[in-house]
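User: Can you recover a sequence for this backbone? Please restate the input before giving your answer.

Assistant: Of course. Working from this structure:
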């Protein structure tokens, strides 16, 4: 039982998400993909026809646990074989829990190519709908968009010997797949330091003026090192200010077309649930609604103790629901407001995206006033404070974590950026992930693990003298291991209680460390806490100052902040093979992930072999094994 199957053709389309046309991956001729809406408990069926003529495809249902259906998780090389061009695969899985989710491609860098959409699971007994003020949901799927094709991006990331080409910052931020490249709509003032636009409408002249300023050049005024410094500072500033606004490519105020802005219509005096999810390739974002406070009520499909905020930080892979009250703003004469979404965590080179919150009866095309400014990009403290405010909301949907004494294993995961054979890679305990050609799940079902991947256990810790304040290349020789590019896995017995401590450190540059949003498939984990510096699991995981075992939030994504650590707990109670990785697409591509093989005990494999749909695993070595040893009738 369940809603009618969704039938999707995944195909190359020409689309102009930011008013500039590009080749991208669409579903049923459009971008983003259709929104799936289901009720908790429903069986969701999606028939995926791969009409991409030059590549395989898979679709991952981000936040869905796939309890008992590990083959429907949609991760190439892990849960299934990529669906070949011209072939069809049917995903069938249960919407296990109400919440705000999304789906996306999980093969190569297909997510960044535009293969994504919203997945909303409704609650038949929704606590928020009972509020007499409740008037409905608004949905906001956030993403970032690059003009360079993902194939070129991937090629750049894989280049060797100093030719590494980082993808850089995205050209445009998208709201529900819509944005405007290099253009800030309307009467837009100072968004972020240095990005100043004062045109009342986006037009070419404005673009030209900015371009002139950017072309002016930085003269050296005078002689000596001071003048040199000034010139360098000027050049830096110019790079920062002009990076994104080299040329104005503003589209029209194109409501009916493929690009922005998005308008959300609301009635005054009501409460809306604004669902926000981020499937960005790179950017961490800050979301603000001009003139409105937001009440955070859900994180990654789990209810949280409500709290009020002025703005919300959202990293790739995360989702939130916030309540938006339209009572306070009732009296305003031109009731239409900006929603602005800007980059945090990295020096922004991308203009904020704007949407419009339009009250019924508003005559105004555009909101009056200046869109809310994005907070300082480098104020990580703000983000941490927000993360630490999240506490689970007690109720039937929540189970507190097993106590610390019941933890079977603690795994420390050092995140480092390494140089391997001239390539820049991310590594976890000095192992950089590269996926096998044959999916792990098929290898287990057919008992051919050793033929498919390196069965050496993945390292559960790193050296005690590793100095996280130093880049890997400056460590004492005994503190490091040679980096391996490998497909080895962590194995867990069914039901094990596992603590994972993600440990951040210097990248290859001294003093530089980035944020990484880590996402786990097949589970929610409890986010026990965050700390600074190097974690000593023995001490720190027992320290109530950092660790919350009473009401920690359940989530599927948690941020590892620069030079800090993040502690998670989960129960390995969902037999399957699951990815756990940084949700930044280029980071994953560079090896920033691990694989958990869970409950893959001998006695369970026979059942797995019988249940797994053949088309999910009939490729590579599994296909050969199946030919040699056909299933008994
Ligand atoms: Cu949304 Cu493995 O990712
Ligand atoms: Cu990362």
């Amino acid at each position: 039982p369940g809603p009618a199957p969704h039938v999707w053709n995944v195909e190359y389309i020409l689309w102009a998400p930011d008013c500039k046309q590009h080749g991208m991956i669409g579903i049923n001729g459009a971008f983003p993909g259709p929104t799936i809406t289901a009720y908790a408990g429903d069986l969701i069926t999606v028939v995926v026809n791969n009409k991409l003529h030059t590549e395989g495809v898979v679709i991952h249902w981000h936040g869905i646990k796939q309890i008992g259906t590990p083959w429907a998780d949609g991760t190439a090389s892990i849960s299934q074989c990529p669906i070949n061009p011209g072939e069809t695969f049917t995903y069938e899985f249960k919407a296990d829990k109400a919440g705000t989710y999304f789906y996306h491609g999980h093969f190569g860098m297909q997510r960044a190519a535009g293969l994504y959409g919203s997945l909303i699971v409704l609650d038949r007994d929704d606590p928020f709908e009972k509020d007499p003020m409740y008037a409905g949901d608004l949905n906001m799927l956030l993403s970032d968009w690059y003009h360079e094709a993902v194939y070129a991006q991937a090629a750049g990331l894989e280049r060797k010997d100093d030719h590494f080409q980082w993808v850089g910052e995205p050209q445009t931020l998208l709201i529900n797949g819509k944005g405007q490249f290099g253009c800030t709509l309307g009467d837009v003032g100072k968004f972020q330091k240095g990005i100043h636009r004062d045109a009342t409408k986006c037009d070419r002249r404005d673009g030209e003026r900015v371009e002139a300023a950017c072309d002016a050049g930085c003269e050296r005024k005078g002689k000596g090192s001071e003048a040199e410094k000034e010139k360098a500072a000027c050049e830096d500033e110019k790079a920062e200010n002009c990076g994104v606004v080299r040329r104005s490519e503003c589209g029209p105020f194109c409501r009916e077309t493929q690009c922005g802005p998005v308008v959300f219509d609301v009635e005054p005096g009501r409460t809306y649930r604004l669902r926000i999810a981020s499937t960005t390739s790179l950017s961490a974002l800050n979301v603000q609604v001009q003139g409105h406070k937001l009440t955070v009520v859900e994180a990654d499909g789990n209810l949280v103790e409500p709290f009020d905020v002025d703005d919300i930080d959202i990293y790739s892979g995360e989702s939130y629901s916030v309540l938006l009250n339209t009572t306070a703003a009732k009296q305003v004469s031109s009731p239409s407001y900006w929603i602005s979404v800007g980059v945090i965590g990295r020096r922004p080179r991308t203009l904020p995206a704007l949407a419009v919150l339009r009250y019924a009866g508003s005559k105004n095309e555009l909101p009056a006033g200046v869109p809310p400014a994005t907070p300082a990009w480098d104020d990580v403290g703000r983000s941490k404070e927000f993360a630490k405010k999240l506490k689970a909301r007690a109720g039937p949907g929540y189970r507190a974590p097993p106590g610390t004494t019941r933890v079977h294993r603690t795994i420390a995961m050092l995140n480092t950026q390494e140089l391997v054979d001239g390539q820049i890679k991310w590594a976890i305990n000095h192992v950089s992930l590269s996926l096998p050609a044959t999916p792990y799940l098929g290898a287990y079902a057919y008992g051919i693990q050793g033929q498919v991947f390196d069965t050496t256990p993945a390292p559960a810790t790193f050296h005690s003298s590793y100095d996280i304040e130093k880049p890997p290349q400056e460590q004492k020789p005994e503190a490091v291991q040679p980096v391996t590019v490998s497909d080895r896995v962590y194995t867990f017995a069914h039901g094990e209680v596992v603590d994972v401590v993600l440990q951040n450190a210097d990248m290859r540059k001294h003093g530089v460390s980035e944020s990484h949003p880590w996402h786990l498939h097949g589970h929610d984990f409890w986010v026990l806490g965050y700390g600074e510096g190097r974690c000593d699991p023995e001490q720190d995981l027992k320290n109530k100052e950092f660790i919350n075992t009473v009401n920690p939030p359940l989530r599927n994504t948690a941020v590892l902040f620069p030079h800090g650590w993040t502690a998670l707990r989960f129960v390995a109670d969902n037999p399957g093979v699951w990815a756990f990785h940084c949700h930044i697409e280029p980071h994953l591509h560079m090896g920033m992930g691990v694989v958990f093989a869970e409950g893959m005990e001998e006695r369970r494999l026979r059942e797995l072999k019988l249940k797994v749909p053949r088309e999910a695993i009939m490729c590579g070595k599994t296909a050969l094994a199946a030919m040699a040893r056909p299933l008994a009738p």
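That completes the design. Residues 185-211, 242-256 have pLDDT under 50 and may be disordered.
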